[in-house]
Write a structure and sequence with these properties.
The chain is of the alpha+beta class. The chain has 14 helices and 26 strands. The relative contact order is 0.16. The structure holds ligand EPZ.
Length: 454
């Protein structure tokens, strides 16, 4: 049976059609990658601005009436969804000719995150805090689970309640109200898997306009959260302890619009590092901050890969003989879950056994079966994967299931012998801007073709 993924952003009204005896899609964005391998990557690549910093920072601009401009926000499907989300509230959002993203939040007449948008992008939830603080009321569709597992938002809601919000659920929507405004509080945001990135973002964005002092304990320390806090301070907020698990926020009465540059995307940088390592390449990764990636750099070095930080980035020099190692994903500054899949593709080629333990999203292993189709030798035991290194990967048709799992398939495809076909590359387009063109400039041979199998 053909399964239709209605929750994905890519369907258009025209139905699939039969062609050459096979069901072919006529769905915008159902492109496939044909990757010819193996290749050895070499040259320079520039890292874009961070998606996961850009999304909450776009939401933060809603806190200040007037026109903010953001520099370095990448052109990605998820960013376009966020632009639509902000537009339907009554704000003006525009990508200027110079690439800057302008958001005019003078007027917000519909503080709502509708199901049709939230289902396309979970990160839409980060409008909850700023709209509650600015408008005193917000309705956001409850995000469901996704390919990487259950994604609860209980900690977001606990934090907002402690700031004085009244919250109830109705017809699949979270409705939060604070008609009298919010009040500072001491809030503990730790959960069973550590802190919460977007939960910290939400509570922090609500607290900046609350009366009095808020202390967030067990706040997420991810660089994207720190970037958001720096942006909020540039708008007139008073946040200290940025980058630490204890944020102290002294509420202010209003914020002003801002011009702000988002940090480089450390996950994109790490993906290029993995691609260099898997192909024994030599890649200069420009515009990245290795200091934000110490756990990643440490693992690469343990694998025998050279990482040399330089002025605005670093050089990664891979080798044929990759050392096996263990990776445990953890909240920052630990190894990021968003690079687990890509690094598993590299470890699949090591000359021994490695162990990968996922401690943030214990079910985030959709790539395992696909990598095994490419002759990797991976065995999943709960939230652990035992990676028995193989001499080579072999091309196969594979299916992208989520953003980072698809990036892992690209990394594997670059190293594999033969032509790897990756279906549903719209998952990749959510988080990597024209990745095939940028990898091709490094010597990859990736063709994007329209329409894949459904
Ligand atoms: C952010 O998601 C990122 N998304 C994710 O990146 C990233 O994987 C994740 O942080 C972890 O680093 C964006 O920034 C847009 P969490 P977020 O709340 O904030 C549990 C990518 O590929 N939890 O930090 O939604 C949760 O189930 C994406 O770019 C609760 O229990 O993740 C998980 O186990 C995917 N209750 C852990 O905490 C809550 O209320 C961390 O999740 C919230 C989370």
């Amino acid at each position: 049976m053909v399964s239709l993924y209605y929750t994905d952003p890519v369907w258009v009204s025209n139905p699939p059609v039969w062609r050459k005896g096979r069901l072919r899609s006529r769905i915008i964005g159902m492109d496939v990658f044909q990757i010819e391998g193996p290749v050895r990557l070499a040259g320079h690549v520039e890292v874009n601005g961070s998606k996961n910093a850009g999304l909450p920072i776009m939401a933060a601009t809603l806190l200040a009436p007037g026109r903010s401009t953001l520099v370095g926000v990448p052109r990605l499907a998820d960013i376009s969804v966020c632009m639509d989300l902000i537009r339907q509230m009554g704000c003006e959002v525009q990508r200027q000719d110079d690439g800057l993203l302008a958001i005019d939040a003078t007027k917000i007449d519909n503080p709502v995150g509708p199901y049709d948008i939230v289902r396309k992008m979970r990160a839409s939830i980060c409008i909850l805090g700023p709209l509650l603080a600015r408008c005193g009321r917000v309705e956001v569709s409850m995000p469901g689970g996704c390919a990487i597992g259950d994604r609860p938002i209980n900690l977001h809601l606990i934090g907002l309640k402690q700031l004085g919000a009244r919250i109830h659920l109705k017809s699949g929507y979270v409705i939060a109200e604070a008609p009298e405004g919010l009040k500072g509080a001491s809030i503990f945001l730790g959960g069973p898997f550590g802190s919460t990135v977007l939960g910290t973002a939400n509570v922090m964005m609500a607290a900046v306009l609350a009366k009095g002092r808020t202390i967030i304990e067990s706040a997420a320390c991810e660089p994207e959260v720190a970037d958001l806090a720096n942006c909020l301070n540039a708008m007139g907020a008073r946040i200290s302890g940025i980058g630490s698990p204890r944020l102290v926020i002294d509420g202010v009465t209003h914020l002003h619009p801002v011009q702000y540059r988002v940090i480089p995307d450390r996950i994109e940088a790490g993906t290029f590092m993995a691609a260099a390592a898997a192909t024994a390449g030599e890649v200069h990764i420009d515009h990245c901050r290795p200091d934000d990636m110490m756990a990643v750099v440490d693992r690469l070095r343990r694998m025998g890969i050279t990482v040399e930080p330089n002025g605005d980035g670093c050089t990664v020099v891979g080798r044929e003989d990759i050392e096996p190692t263990d990776i445990t994903t953890q909240p920052y500054p630990g190894f990021p879950t968003d690079l687990q899949a890509q690094f598993m593709a590299v470890l699949a080629l090591a000359h021994g056994n490695s162990i990968v333990i996922e401690k943030i999203f214990p079910d985030r292993f959709m790539h395992v079966a696909e990598l095994n189709r490419m002759a990797a030798n991976l065995r999943k035991e709960g939230s652990v994967v035992i990676v028995a290194g193989v001499k080579k990967l072999v091309a196969a048709p594979v299916m992208a299931s989520d953003l980072r799992a698809s990036a892992a398939l690209v990394v594997a495809g670059l190293a594999a012998e033969g032509t790897t076909t990756i279906n549903r590359v719209y998952h990749i387009d959510r988080g990597y801007e024209r990745i095939e063109e940028r990898l091709n400039r490094l010597g990859a041979r990736i063709r994007r073709e329209e329409g894949g199998t459904v």
